[in-house]
Structures are given as C-alpha cells and as structure tokens.
Amino acid sequence: MSSMFSAKPRGRPVDRLSLIHRHLHNRPIVEINTPFSTERISQPSEDIPWLPPTRASSEFLPPLQSRSIVKMSQQPEHPTLLIPGPIEFDDAVLQSMSHYSESHVGPAFVATFGETLSMLRKLFQTTNEKSQPFVISGSGTLGWDLVAANLVEPGDEVLVLHTGYFADSFADCFEVYKAKPTQLKAPIGDRPQLDEIEKVLKEKKYRAITVTHVDTSTGVLSEIKALSELVHRVSPDTLVVVDAVCSVGSEEIQFDNWNLDVVLTASQKGIGCPAGLSIMMVSDRAIERFKARKTPPGSYFASFKNWLPIMQSYEAKKPAYFATPSPQLIHALHTSLTQILSRPLEERFAAHKKVSQQVKDHVSKLGLKQLASKPENQANGMTAIYLPEGVTPPDVLPLLAKKGVVFAGGLHKQIAQRYIRFGHMGVSVVDDQRRGDIKKALDALDASIAEVKSS
C-alpha cells in the first residue's frame, strides 16, 4: 500500500483526551464578541439542581438533601430563574406552546397572529395605522439585522449610544452591512449625556441614532423621551432606533408620543414568552425611508421587502407566506400579551418600579453597590450588583443555585469577574405575592454573601 495511506501513530488515549480537553477549557482561546465568551467563566458548572430536558422523574434528580428547589405552579420543580432573560413563564403561556399542529396559513392561526400583531400596538402604545408591528422567528439579535439591512445603506453614518456590551454588538452589525457606526461612550454604569449627544449630532449628518433602553450587561436605563426630543430638534432627519430587548414589558415605552421610529425587542424577557421571536415596531417615517432606498436591502431573510406585506396581511386576517412562522410560539405570545393587556399598563410598570426599588434597597443594606450608581440610570427589570472585594461570580453563583435561585454572571468584558446580575421582571414581579420569587432570591443572596464572607 502506498505510504500516503499509511496510518500515523494515534498516540495514547490520555494524549488524545488532553487535546480534546484543550477545546473544552473554560477560558476562550480567542476572545470573541459574544456574551458566551465573557459570561461562561462566571457560570457555576457544579452543584446546580438539574432536570433532564425530556423527563422530570425523580430517578434523574440529585438526592433531595443536596438540592433546594421549590414547587412553583404546575411546572416541574426547578430552580427559580432570575436572570435578565429568559425569565420565569406563566403556566398559561407555557400551555399555549402545546397547541396542536395547524397550518400557518389556516384561518384559525391567521386570526391568532393578526390579533397578536394588533395587541403589540397597544403594548408599544401606538395608534398610528401606518406604523407596522413585526413578529419574526429569531432572537432579539435579528432586530439589529432588520434595522441595518433595511434602514441604512452602505456608507451611511450611524450614531450608536454606548451603555454596555450591546452597543458594541449593534455597531458590529452595522459594519457588516457597510454602514459607518460611531460610538458615543460613557463610563461603565453611566450613559451619554444629552449635551454630549447634541454636540455630536451637530458635527455630521447621521442616518440613524441607536440607543439601548436597558443594557443587559450593565443594568443601565437610558432616557428615551428626552433623547428623541433632542434628535428631532437638532437632527430631524435622523431615525430614532431603540434596542428595547430588555425593557419592553418592564419599562414604559410610548411609541407615538415619544416620536420613535423603531423599537426592537424579543419574546423571552419582559414580555414573558419563551425565546424564539424577534419583535419590532416600525414607524411610517422609517417605512417610507426604506421605500426610498437607493440600493436593495442587504439581506434576504431580514428584508422588509419580503416581510412587510406578510405582516400587513396577517394583521388584516389574511393568509400570507414568505417564511414559515412558529405557530406554537405565536400562541404563547398571544397568551402573554392577553395577560399583560388585561390590566392597565401603568399598573405593570408601577409594579416593576416597586419591586426594583425593593431589590436595590436590599442590595444597599447588604453594603453592595450597583454598576448603575445613579438612580436615574437604574433599570426596573434588572439589577447589576458589584460583589465584595475579592469575591467573584464563581464564588457566589453556585451557592445561590444550591438555594434554588439562578442569577447571571457578569457580562461586560472589562469587569465580568466583579459582578452578578439579578433579573426581576414578568411573572416574578406581577405575580410575586403568590410565587414569592423576589423574597426567595433576596434571602438566598443574603445567605450566599454571608457564606462567602465567612469562608
């Protein structure tokens, strides 16, 4: 046999395992701009109560004495998920996911999808019939592509207001579509000030300005109303784009009154629906800007040319097709929106503010600080908490998990090992009296911090 087919020595099994282990090491070999690369080193990998994905039988569970999880509603026992999304889900929302299979162009589903789109108008607080809601299978990240592919063209200048990790990523997305993003940054835990923004807007013409309403990496809340007023006064042709993935459902947004052009979000956070839907409200001004493009959209799947007639048809209760939606997720979203809109939105936002203040007061009493140190910068749906000096997320997160609570590790790559993130939104807030999620989380935080300090 020719030498080119000769097998090379394979080496000992332990050597091969060593090579494999190198690829599984906790620290990324090459730094990449994803939450996973910066957050995974903070997540506990041991001592977390675990449930198999398809069975909840006790034969798969750790011994009872080694886990601390609470029966919640009719769902299988599991640790309380209090990260900044996905969040805990209501039983009725999850039950909607078990809807029998149906045609995505059949009359029953078309009616449900149409009602869902109409309900989104109420959630975003718009009565302008020329504005358009979109619901497309994908994550919140797809919203960036929809903006960059349709509302800016190659060479266009875009001003990206930076309050954390997600501004970096939105800027990266614009660069993929050959736009020219300029980031206006603030110190960690703060946000760009209006006078700074005004100065930059006067220096050149920007096609769009983007702002992260709540940056999940820092818990910083941006002021949208005053920002939009500034943009319309100083640079009226600039589109106002709001990344509201971590704010819709827990922070007030008035699409019409604040003169917004795009608000993009996702299903799994304040809206309280399982992940998998990219949700967006687009103004008539933005749609007209799209129609006046000189170049075709830079994407096929994310093209308004393909999706706009589909959304208009579904909302008119008429079947249409471009790409197959997820009927089960649409049913879940319909149920979640029905619940949200069953009470005045003001009550929902007030509940989130009340619980947020409770959490933040408790954190302060523990002697801990927030990344967002100024009250006006603090989100109502999450809190980013600095740990005591010398304490890292891997010291605290496993202790919380043992007590049946899951928080998130740090995400901002400059300080990821110094803080943790507590998500408090959705049913954990509006149904707190029955569920007790917030008290359980604060008690677990107390005990875990005390345990770390005494060790």
UniProtKB/TrEMBL annotation:
<dbReference type="GO" id="GO:0004760">
    <property type="term" value="F:L-serine-pyruvate transaminase activity"/>
</dbReference>
<dbReference type="GO" id="GO:0005777">
    <property type="term" value="C:peroxisome"/>
</dbReference>
<keyword id="KW-0808">Transferase</keyword>
<dbReference type="InterPro" id="IPR015422">
    <property type="entry name" value="PyrdxlP-dep_Trfase_small"/>
</dbReference>
<dbReference type="InterPro" id="IPR000192">
    <property type="entry name" value="Aminotrans_V_dom"/>
</dbReference>
<comment type="similarity">
    <text>Belongs to the class-V pyridoxal-phosphate-dependent aminotransferase family.</text>
</comment>
<keyword id="KW-0032">Aminotransferase</keyword>
<protein>
    <recommendedName>
        <fullName>alanine--glyoxylate transaminase</fullName>
        <ecNumber>2.6.1.44</ecNumber>
    </recommendedName>
</protein>
<dbReference type="GO" id="GO:0008453">
    <property type="term" value="F:alanine-glyoxylate transaminase activity"/>
</dbReference>
<dbReference type="InterPro" id="IPR020578">
    <property type="entry name" value="Aminotrans_V_PyrdxlP_BS"/>
</dbReference>
<keyword id="KW-0663">Pyridoxal phosphate</keyword>
<dbReference type="InterPro" id="IPR015421">
    <property type="entry name" value="PyrdxlP-dep_Trfase_major"/>
</dbReference>
<dbReference type="GO" id="GO:0019265">
    <property type="term" value="P:glycine biosynthetic process, by transamination of glyoxylate"/>
</dbReference>
<feature type="domain" description="Aminotransferase class V">
    <location>
        <begin position="99"/>
        <end position="412"/>
    </location>
</feature>
<dbReference type="Pfam" id="PF00266">
    <property type="entry name" value="Aminotran_5"/>
</dbReference>
<dbReference type="InterPro" id="IPR015424">
    <property type="entry name" value="PyrdxlP-dep_Trfase"/>
</dbReference>
